[in-house]
Specification:
The protein folds into two domains: about 10-95, no CATH class; about 130-200, no CATH class. The chain is built from six helices and three strands, in the order ααααααβββ. The chain has helices at about 10-15, 25-30, 30-55, 55-95, 95-125, 135-145; strands at about 150-155, 170-180, 190-200. The protein has a three-stranded mixed sheet with strand order 1-3-2, with helices on one face. Helix 3 packs antiparallel against helix 4 (about 55-95). The longest helix is centred in the middle third of the chain and has 38 residues, at about 55-95.
């Protein structure tokens, strides 16, 4: 039985940076985007060196530092691949990988359910102080950040309605007027709200 290689082909490809004899082949096989990025990095480095030679050390240092960060990131990729490959080898040799491959689908499915359950639970926990069996009260509590038990709603008059005697248009309506009273410590828990209705002539 053939043993699995320590590195995958993609991981091994990252190490080409440390093998100069393969640079030409690597450059030939890379997509155009990589070549454009490499050219931009080279231009930034040249610009930074030019600024340093001109005496503009501030700009030159910033540009050279930027190139240094980019190159350090590229160099760190093979080391990250080495760590990943080492972890994979350890899991494979210990037998954990075989067990994981058997239970992976079930574990991921359970994890997904637990994740969404947790998200819904957090949303409900955040909205709980503003929820009640009365949807109008809950809406006012949520929109004004007032606990639902501290929301009072006055009874809306019906004398402007068409069906109220005498029947017909009364040329008026009632607008809701919200009054929010802050508590002593100005916290949401101490706030209270009263919704009244104000007659408006049309």
């Amino acid at each position: 039985m053939s043993r699995e290689p320590f590195f995958t082909p993609n991981e091994l490809k990252a190490f080409v940076l440390f093998r100069p004899r393969e640079w030409r082949e690597w450059w030939r096989s890379e997509p155009i985007l990589t070549k454009v990025i490499a050219a931009i990095v080279l231009m930034i480095l040249s610009w930074g060196l030019y600024e340093l030679l001109r005496g503009n050390t501030e700009t030159g240092k910033i540009l050279c530092a930027l190139v240094g960060i980019l190159l350090a990131t590229v160099v760190l990729v093979p080391f990250a691949n080495f760590l990943v490959a080492g972890l994979r080898w350890m899991l494979r040799e210990s037998g954990v990988l075989v067990v994981w491959l058997k239970v992976r689908k079930d574990v991921l499915a359970i994890g997904k359910v637990m994740l969404w359950t947790g998200i819904v639970g957090l949303i409900l926990a955040a909205l709980w102080p503003y929820m009640s069996l009365d949807p109008v009260k809950s809406w006012y509590a949520l929109t004004h950040a007032v606990p639902v038990e501290r929301v009072g709603i006055a009874k809306k008059p019906h004398d402007c309605e068409f069906n109220t005697a005498p029947m017909g248009s009364k040329n008026c309506h009632y607008d809701a007027k919200v009054v929010v009273a802050k508590g002593a410590d100005s916290s949401n828990a101490e706030k209270s709200m009263l919704v009244t209705y104000e007659r408006v002539e049309d």
